[in-house]
From TrEMBL:
It comes from Brachybacterium hainanense. The keyword Membrane applies. The chain crosses the membrane at residues 7-28, 34-56, 68-87, 93-110. InterPro entries: Inner_membrane_protein, UCP028777, YccF. Keywords: Membrane, Transmembrane, Transmembrane helix. The lineage of its organism: Bacteria, Bacillati, Actinomycetota, Actinomycetes, Micrococcales. The keyword Transmembrane applies. This is YccF domain-containing protein. It holds the Pfam family YccF. Residues 8-58, 72-122 form the Inner membrane component domain.
Amino acid sequence: MRSLITLILNIIWLVTAGWSLFLAYVIAGVLACIFIVTIPFGVASFRIAGFVLWPFGREVVDRHRPSAVGTIGNVIWFVVAGWWLALGHVLTAVAQAVTIIGIPLAWANLKLIPVTCFPFGKEVVSSDDARAAMFPTAHS
C-alpha cells in the first residue's frame, strides 16, 4: 500500500512541480559544466535533479561531514545557485499548499531546501535504507 501511495504522490509531483524543478537543476548543471573547475557543481546539480524528479520513497542523508573543500563548495553553490533554486522550492510549495492534496507535495518541496542549499556531503538513498540506517535491527 505504501508503494502505491508513493507512486501516486510521485506522479502528482511530476505533473505539478517535478518537471519544472528538474529542468531548473539540469540547466544549473549544464551551466556549471561549462568550466572544468565547476564540474563538481554540475554533478551535484544533476544528482539533485534526479531526486527532484521523483522524490517520494527517497531521502537525503548526511554522507559525511564535508571537508574544507566541500564546505567552500557549499558556500559557493549557495551564493551562485542554491538560494535561487531554494526560492523556486518555496514558491512552488506555497502554490501547492493551496489545496489539501497539495500539502504533502508542499512539505516535500520544503524538505528539499537543505540539499538544494548545501549539496556537498549529502547522499540520496531510498527511504527504506534511511530507516534501516537509523534503526538497525539487532541480530543475536
